[in-house]
Structures are given as structure tokens and as C-alpha cells.
Write the C-alpha cells for this entry.
Amino acid sequence: MYIKEIKTRNPKTNKEYVKHTLVEAVRTENGPRQRAVMQLGVLTLPKELWPLLIAELEGRISGQTQLMLPGIKLPLKVKNAADRAMEKFTIRSSRRIENRKSPYPDEVRVKLEDTATTKHRSFGAEFVCHSTWNDLKMHKKLSDLGFNARERSLAEAVVTGRLMDSGSELSTWEWMKNSSAIGELTEESLDNIGLNSVYSIGDKLLANKEEIEKHLVETEAKLHPGRETLYLFDITNFYFEGQSLGNTLAQYGKSKEKRDDCPLVSLGLIVDSSGFPVTSEVFPGNIGEPHTLSEILSKMRYFEGYLPGMAPTIAMDRGIATKDNIALLKEKSIPYIVISRGPRNAHYLQEFENHLTDPEFKSITRHNREIRLKEVHSESITEILCLSEGRKEKEDAIERRWKERASEDLSSLQRSIRKGNIILTSKIERKLGRLEERYPSLNRYFAIELVKDKANPINSSDLVFCEKSVFDIEKEDTNTLNGTYVIETTLQEKSPEEIWSLYMTITRVEEAFRCLKSELGTRPVYHQIARRTRGHLFISILAYHLLINIEYKLNSAGDTRRWSTIREVLKTHQRSTVIITDTQRQIHHLRISSQPEPCHSQIYQALRIKPGKDLKKYIVAKRL
């Protein structure tokens, strides 16, 4: 083989163009001829390094990786040039796989010592996502919305990428190019996809958000019938990386991940009692939770009968259950179930104190912990008084820990005063103020007194403190109410046990947020444009649709593993190119999937899918 330099001249501009081609001499019936092996584009590599490049490329094409003599190190310039050439060569070769049938017989005698493999790409988890995408009939829906075949393929790849390589659109693009066989599963091959295409497909998906979400809700209702029409609403936020000065959604607020130093964007989400997303809406990061319910219900056309099922119930945590929101639900006659906002349990202090002797308190056991429930009716509302043994243990431990930390901080301040490191009363009072900010209940549970210096009244000589006794604290502030809460609902026909179980499904939306933030890598957000931020979050919602469908089918088959575990198991099911040389010195490249191992087959059987057997073969060259 050798490198041939080809020069052409534009007759109009008289400009000369140069390109380089890797060629080899072949003997034909008509005599010796030159055959182009690989287009190299424009080589900037010095000519004295061309022989090394030729040897490296010949080795890679034939599957031999050790053509250099021992002790000779391949220069970095040569390696980079070979990488660029092979990237283009691999793309063209993959096209030949699809478009050309091999004229050679299926059975050949091979030289085992020359066998090699290359282009290993993950396949198992992508195949699971691809099958779920087809179950949800996304190809047909996107086609109806005007997506062409390439756009449909790219949309599937981008959504799958969020499940496989959680992170930014940039990391998804790199995963598509270098790590995944998703382009071999999609409707069209995804060769030569640019980064801008990944961003653009997010914009197009976002433009059809309402139609896509409605399609998914209706399709999932048919795929998994019999699910109760309880809808759970909550809101969370994600932090931005960078200042995001041009992003109108990026606002500073209270971060749920303790990243108050970063601008935030908020996501409101409604899921059903099985965890399937119903609708979502993006808000600025500084929006308060209580103000989102009316807006998201209006935007998702809740009042127009958008949600499937009869009289769906809304469940919310106490952060959103304001008086105005409760009034809105009552006005619209929407059934609801919430934990009452504010110290509602203090109104039932006497009932909670007598729960052991009150026969109206019914006991149930969940996860080896006792929960006592009592039903109280008032007008059209039912309230369930709840006392959880596990929750009480948790709140008692939290209270004990903060008291211990507060006592340590007071002792530290006391030592500083006694040593004379700080004596000004004004400075000491400022430090006490900071402690009160850190521990809001400090003065309620601790008696604190500053001892003034008799010689100099502006100074203090000591700090005396002690924890108050139970008798010195207002009765409703003691840990009598630890572990208690009150559930308010309009569902009067259900028993206390049923109402409590329904409300506990609020953890489904919390689980959805956990998946979005961890397994789907939605955070941090890097986008500097509001539209792209909305698209980024919507892609994560679509990915979560795939995730919940996969996990639901697995759970139905008795497999309770999370997607992160399933994805890790399926990583070892791959597609690879096998390079073999026959006795005629012809080099065959076979693109095949590895044989599923028992751990792979177990997952495929639970999901009721079966990877097809495909074998694609072509001859690249003849070994010299």
C-alpha cells in the first residue's frame, strides 16, 4: 500500500485542491491496477511519517494491532491521523454492511490466529429501550406529527441516551458516536449526526409536548389497564451550572438539593398512583410551591377533562396544600387527599395523648412498624389522625440530634467568654442571634442567660444555659406530637386504612424526582436559553416514561430491580465486528451481536422480548 496525492484545479478560480488516498496495487486480468482502499482527505502529516501511517492503517484494517517493530513507539501525530481516517472508514464500511450483499459463500476456511474483534458497542439496554419505544407507538405518533425518518430515529436515540448515559446533550451525542449500537436499532442509521441536530430534535419534541404527553398517557392506559385514577402532584427544582444570565427560567430560590448558591429551574409533575407521568410543566426557579397548582392544572387542561378516568383524585404534600389550593379543589369539585398544612395535629393533642386507651384508634402494621389511625368527620371533609411509630422514632432522633448540636455550640460560646476571647455583650448577642437562626426552637427548649461584668456593664463575664424541663415548655411543643400528622380528604366512602394507603402513594412522585435527578442525570442544567432548558427537561420526562414502563413490566414479572441495576447487567450484551482471514487471504468483517448470557435472557424473558439474530458480512481487503 502507499499514499497517493491527487491534485485538482478549479478552472474558474484557478485554485488548486489536494487530497490524499490510500491505494494498493492489485493484479487483474488486464494487468496491474491501482485500487483505492481509503480516502484520507488532506494530510498535514510530514511525508517522512507516511510509511508509519500506512503500516498502522493496514494493521487496523486487517485486524492486526501489532505491526510496529519492538521498541518503536508510534508518534502521536501518526496515531491521531490514523484515528481520523478510521473513523470515516468505519462509517463508510457500516453503510456497505446495510446496502450490499456479500458475493462470497457463507462457509470459508479461516486462519484462527488472525482473528480479531473491533468496534464494540453496548446493545442490551438499548434493545430494551427500543422495544419499549415501539410498545408506546412513538414512531407512529412522531410520524403523524411530521417527523421524518431521520428525526424519528434521532428522537429515539436522544431519549434513550438520557437513560443510558445520563447527562447533558453533549454527553448523549458522544455516547451515540462512540459507545452505543442505538444507530443500528433505529429506523435510519445515525452516521454523521452533528451536535446541533441533538439540540434541534429537543426543540422539535418540545414544540409537540402536549400531543406527545397525551399520546403516552392514553397508550400506557391501554398497555397497563386497571390502574387507579389517583394523581399525585409535587414540584422540585434543578440547579444550573454557570450564571445562566440569558435564561429567564434561571432564578435564585430555595434549592431542595441545598444549592442555594446556584440559579434554579422548577419542574411541576403529576404522576398516577403507579408512578406513570401524566403531565409536567416548567417554572422559574423562584416560584413558590403553593402557587403552582392552579397554573399546572390549567395548562394541562385538567378542567377540560384531559385526564383519563372518572373523578381522579389529587394527592399533595403539605408544602402545596395551602388554604387557597384547597379552596380551588373544593370549588372545582376535585376529590383530594392531603396532609393538612400547619400545626393541625396540635388541635387533636388530647386525642393523640390518649391513643392507647381510645378504642376508636385502629392499629395497622407496615414494615414491622405500628401505625394508629382514627377517623374524624367534619362537614364534607374527613380527617384521619395518624400516629406512626417509625415516624416518631425518626422525629425524636432529629430533635435529639439538634439539641445535642445546639448544646455543643452554646458550650463553645461559653468557653470563649470565660477565656476572655469575646467579652462585648453586643458581639455575644449577635452570636446568639446566629444560633437562633440555625436552631429556630433554641429559646423554646433552652434557658439562656448572659452574666454582665459588674466592673464594665458593656461586657459580659459568663454565659449560663440549661435545657428546660418538660413542665417549663408549652404542652403542644413537647415531643408528644412527634410522629403525628393529619390527613384531610374528600373520600368519605373509604376506610381510614384505605385513605392512609392512598396518601402513602405520594412517594411515587418523590421516586420520579429521584430518578430524574440521579438515574436520568437531569441535573445540573447547562443551557443558557429558556427554550433549550424546557427541551432538556422534557427529554428527561420522556426518558422517565421509558423507565417506568420497563420497571412496571419487570415488577409484574416478579423482578424488583431498579433500572440502574438492569442497565449495569445488560452492559455486557454488545455488538461487535469480528475480523477473520480465510485461506485465500481475504479479510472478512462480520457485524454480530454477542450471545445473550443467562442474566441477559432472564431480563428479556421478563419483558417478553427477544433479540433477533442478524449476521452482516463483507470483505474489506486482501491481506498482503
Q: What stands out?
A: The chain is about 40% helix and 25% strand. Residues 91-100 have pLDDT under 50 and may be disordered.
